[in-house]
Design goal:
Largest sheet: 7 strands, mixed
Organism: Candidatus Acidianus copahuensis
Pfam family, one: BPL_LplA_LipB
Strand content: 25-35%
Structural class: alpha+beta
Keywords: Ligase
CATH architecture of the largest domain: 2-Layer Sandwich
Distance between the termini: 42 Å
Helix content: 10-25%
Oligomer: single chain
GO molecular function, one term: biotin--[biotin carboxyl-carrier protein] ligase activity
Protein name: Biotin--acetyl-CoA-carboxylase ligase
């Protein structure tokens, strides 16, 4: 697959979105370090040398399937990381180990009618040695005491995404697996929305990808952040 590599870049997501109209096939943008990486709602994403930071640009996706890509990508990344650690899904788009964030996912898309190009942004704290004190995060290196091969993980993640994409219409199977590995299941959480904050008990993710709690049902786009408390 066509791959662009940069030792340092503002954001792999921004680069992919800037060049995709000039290309006719799927491609990957990977960087050793990002200076302006972002997550949901353009929150800053810490991405120093050592981690695996990339965007997988996937063309020809039916626009109606785009909302499901966040869940299947979470499953794909979690499965790969489970070869190293006890990885779990923190709804809607993080992978955690003992509630510490080890990976984040950002899905963006550009639609042309009923067909979209999807930009699957993934950050994996692979060989990151330390984090700012305010970040409750971890890495494969800190968890296992060993460096990993970022290229091998990249290859496994891309293959895993493709495997789950082939199952994208098997909603029951996908949601069942999400709930099996849901880090917050039956635990008290803090849901931070744009204008309010709630403390609830998370119950499960429903077939529409919504988080069901004892104080309501929440869409991913309505929630800024979820914390286990």
């Amino acid at each position: 697959m066509l791959t662009f590599r940069a030792p340092k870049i503002t954001s792999t997501q921004d680069f992919a979105e800037a060049v995709h109209n000039m290309l006719f096939s799927d491609f990957i943008v990977i960087a050793d370090e990002q200076t302006k990486a972002r997550g949901r709602y353009r929150r800053e994403w810490y991405s120093p040398i050592g981690g695996l930071w990339f965007t997988y640009a996937k063309k020809g996706i039916p626009t109606e399937k785009v909302p499901s890509l966040s869940i299947i990508t979470s499953l794909a990344v979690r499965k790969v990381l489970s070869n190293y650690v006890d990885s779990r899904i923190r709804w809607p788009n993080d992978i955690t180990v003992s509630d510490r964030k080890i990976s984040g996912i950002l899905i963006e898309a550009e639609a042309l009618g009923n067909i979209s190009t999807v930009f699957i942004g993934i950050g994996i704290n692979s060989n990151v040695k330390e984090f700012p004190q305010e970040l409750y995060a971890t890495s494969l290196l800190l968890e296992t005491g060993k460096n990993v091969n970022n290229d091998e993980i990249l290859d496994r993640v891309i293959k895993s995404i493709e495997e789950y994409y082939r199952e994208i219409d098997n909603t029951e199977k996908i949601i069942s697996e999400v709930n099996e590995f849901l880090s917050m299941k039956e635990r008290k959480i803090r849901l931070i929305e744009k204008d309010s904050e709630k403390k609830c008990v998370a119950l499960f993710v429903d077939r529409y990808g919504r988080l069901v709690t004892d104080c309501g049902i929440f869409e991913a786009e309505d929630v800024l952040r979820v914390e286990v408390i």
